[in-house]
Amino acid sequence: MLKLLGTVFGFALFAGPLMAEPITPDIVRALAPSGQLRAAINFGNPVLAQKDAATGEPRGVTADLARELAKRLGVAVTFIGYDTALKVFEAAKSNAWDIAFLAIDPVRAADMDFTAPYVIIEGTYAVPEGSPFHSAAELDRPGVRIAVGRGSAYDLYLTRTLKHAELVRGEGSDGAFQLFLFSAKKVDAVGGVRQPLVAFAASQPGIRVLSDRFMAIEQAMATPKGRDAGTRYLKAFVEEMKESGFVAKALAASGQAEATVAPPAPLR
Fold first, then answer.
1. Which residues pair with 123 in a beta bridge?
2. I want to staple 124 with a disulfide (CB 3.0 to 4.6 A). Which of 30, 64, 213, 232 is the partner?
3. CA torsion sign, 235 to 241 to 242 to 243?
4. Cβ proximity of 235 and 128 under 8 Å
5. Contacting residues for 205 by C-beta, under 8 A, at least 6 apart
6. Count of CB atoms within 10 A of residue 57's CB?
7. CA 185 to chain CA mean position, Å
8. Crossing angle for the helix pair 246-253 and 61-73, to the nearest 10 degrees
């Protein structure tokens, strides 16, 4: 069942149905300066983005949000696909996209502005069935090696927070899975988003996913720094999309109904 963090009282913080501000030329120029909305889509996170099996077109909550935004701006949307969040982040420095869908992180915030989250997903670990580890905190000890996708939100977070365990980095989730399975030197766990880890464990005998998490990954919309009118609009847009049920419906339609819609956030 899709979970919505927040209550009727939480939504009562807003006076009536929350609506993003009317579109102005300044907003269009900020979000689509070329006359089209260039939306970066990270196919490395299957909770948020998938490719249509028949057409190859993006689908999922991020693609749906981008299409709705483009419709409001009165411009066409162009999707730019990436296979890892790190590549999306690096492309921001070359002005390759206008909006992106990334987890909030202070490292990334140096180059882009974020909305409040629209979805919250869990970062956790998969371990061998016979592993002595049963909670995320137990893995932070000397000698433990953990595979992660390079530059992912959970890589950035674990780099800051782990005190003893060693991170080994692969290219994206698939690279981390390969390290976990085939590294010449033993890897004790693989970190990542819960849903892909569950799918990975189901495809490989003798692997289990821990029941708890080491982090809540806050997925948000982002724009490159300096697009203040666009960022202001996006913040209200995200709140409207959560409150209206748009995000919940998009998650359910793409088979991700177990994902958690983020709670309402005050506009600042």
1. 193, 215
2. 213
3. positive
4. no
5. none
6. 10
7. 30
8. 130
Residue type present at position 120: I
Cα(67)–Cα(78) distance, integer angstroms: 9
User: Looking at this protein, which amino acid is placed at residue 64?
Assistant: D
- Residue 78's CB: how many other CB atoms inside 10 A? 15
* Confidence class for position 267, pLDDT limits 50, 70, 90: confident
pLDDT of 18 reads 65
- The DSSP secondary structure of the chain, one letter per residue, reads --EE---HHHHTTSSSS--PPPP-HHHHHHH-TTSEEEEEEETT-TTT-EE-TTT--EESHHHHHHHHHHHHHTSEEEEEEESSHHHHHHHHTTT--SEEEEE--TTGGGTEEE---SEEEEEEEEEETT-S--SGGGG-STT-EEEEETT-HHHHHHHHH-SS-EEEEESHHHHHHHHHHH-SS---EEEEEHHHHHHHHHHSTTEEE-SS-SEEEEEEEEEETT-HHHHHHHHHHHHHHHHTTHHHHHHHHTT-TTSEEPPP----
Domains of the chain: 3-119+218-261 (3.40.190.10), 120-215 (3.40.190.10)
Tokens of 114: 């974020």
CA 20 vs CA 70, 88, 119, 136, 232: distances in Å = 14, 26, 18, 39, 9
The 10s digit of each residue's pLDDT in 32-81 is 999 999 999 999 999 999 999 899 899 999 999 999 999 999 999 999 99
Integer Cα distance of 31 and 100 in angstroms = 11
